Amino acid sequence: MNKLAIALTASLGLGFAAVGAQAQGAYPQRPITMIVPFAAGGPTDVIARIVGDHMSRTLGQQIVIENVAGAGGTTGITRASQAQPDGYTIMMGHMGTHGAAPALYPNLKYDPTKDFAPIGLAAGTPIVIVARKDFPAADLKGFLEYVKANGDKVNMAHAGVGSVSHMTGIFFSSVMKTKPTMVTYSGTGPALNDLMANTVDYMTDQIVNVAPQIQGNNIKAFAIATAQRSPALPNVPTTKEAGLDGFEVSAWNAVFAPKGTPSEITKKLNDALVKALGDEGTRKRLLDLGGVLPADAERTPEALQKLVESEVARWTPVLKAGTKTE
Ligand code: MLT
Questions:
Q1: Number of domains in the chain
Q2: Is 96 in the pocket of ligand 1 (CB under 6 A)?
Q3: Does residue 97 have its Cβ closer than 6 Å to ligand 1?
Q4: Alpha carbon distances (Å) from 84 to 94, 253, 301
Q5: 163 lines ligand 1 (CB under 6 A)
Q6: Pocket of ligand 1 contains residue 67 by CB under 6 Å
Q7: Staple 163 to which of 72, 97, 210, 231, CB 3.0 to 4.6 Å?
Q8: pLDDT at residue 326, as a whole number
Q9: b vs e for 63-91, b when ≥16 Cβ sit within 10 Å of the residue's Cβ?
Q10: What pLDDT sits at residue 325?
């Protein structure tokens, strides 16, 4: 057989091998849906799109974001938990959907500690107390005085029972001993629009959503609920600096797959997530928004499973007590 024929046969063989590998279904063979259980434009959506963008490059298939809002994120997570465990439906959950929900939804259709294959933590998100730009207070002290004096005349935005903005809002209200009127949105992206339109008064939201509008002086930030200030918001005092003890809380967002997803698939997904968190451009996008990057040891599926278990145990008594004062 002449050299050309040999070369052609070899390349055909390689071609068949590649097709063979594809045919064997080397995951992923097609785009992957990542369900975001809140409206587009909110913190969960923003984090999903940032990490999903780099994960797509590593996996060689597009991660397509599908926003499925409702019931504080539990509608979308319920749907994702019931999807085929084939790696083609994953989700971005968080401290609300996978921490608070069991305490607030007696008939919740999933158990955060049992019904998922954890993939990994994506970003920590400190909570910031923000208000509309013309809110009649110049600092946290004045804000607290006004909110206490005006009770349910003041309205607080949140993204549905069990969302991060809702659970941290309940926590904040219990510390302040106030009962604002709660206004529900499909996510804190839409809630932020109303805050900027001065049609809702305040909310406790994740920094990655509100940082750009604080930096742009379009809303007021009274304090950040962490022990240290955020590098992304150096002029925003901590709650302690601003004179409020007892309100320190950070949320987190993490990637999950349905229970039963094969380990070779969850390993590929975790590998892609870890590579995203190691990518300079991806890190910068998250850090510029005030996101907190997980430490290496926090990026494993096992670490996420432990976090979910501890968060359900932590928030259940707090929220059951808090909702009693509702
Ligand atoms: C969102 O993405 O809208 C938020 O995560 C909602 C929330 O949890 O408050």
A1: 2
A2: yes
A3: no
A4: 21, 22, 19
A5: yes
A6: no
A7: 72
A8: 43
A9: bebebbbebbbbbbbbbbbebebbbbbbb
A10: 44
Summary mean pLDDT of the chain: 93
Residue 320, pLDDT score: 82
| Beta strand pairing call for 202-206 and 181-184 | unpaired
- Any domain includes 243: no
- Within a 10 A sphere around the Cβ of 295, how many other Cβ atoms? 10
Which one-letter amino acid corresponds to residue 130?
V
Q: How far apart are CA 254 and CA 243, in angstroms?
A: 32
Give the three-class secondary structure for 91: strand
What would the two tokens of residue 220 be? 């007021």
Q: Is residue 89 part of a domain?
A: yes
Confidence of residue 103 (pLDDT cuts 50, 70, 90): very high
319 and 260 belong to one structural domain: yes
Measure the CA angle with vertex 266, ends 265 and 268; round to 5°. 65
Q: Do 111 and 185 sit in the same domain of this protein?
A: no
Radius of gyration of the chain (CA): 22
Residues 115 and 152 placed together within one structural domain of the fold? no
Question: Do residue 118 and residue 164 come from a single domain?
Answer: no
Task: Looking at the structure, tell me whether residues 142 and 207 fall in a common domain.
Answer: yes
Tell me, in angstroms, the distance from the centre of ligand 1 to residue 114's CA: 23
Please report which confidence band the pLDDT of residue 7 belongs to, taking 50, 70 and 90 as the band edges. Answer: low
Does residue 318 lie in a domain region?
Answer: yes
Cross-strand partners of 123: 253
pLDDT tens-digit map of 56-66: 999 999 999 99
12-16, 206-210, 276-280: the lowest-pLDDT one: 12-16
The predicted model scores a pTM of 0.91
Kindly give the distance from the C-alpha atom of residue 263 to the centroid of ligand 1, in angstroms, as a whole number: 29
Q: Are strands 181-184 and 155-158 parallel, antiparallel or unpaired?
A: parallel
Closest to 204 measured CA to CA, from 234, 244, 167, 243? 167
Domain with 213, as residue range(s), is 126-224
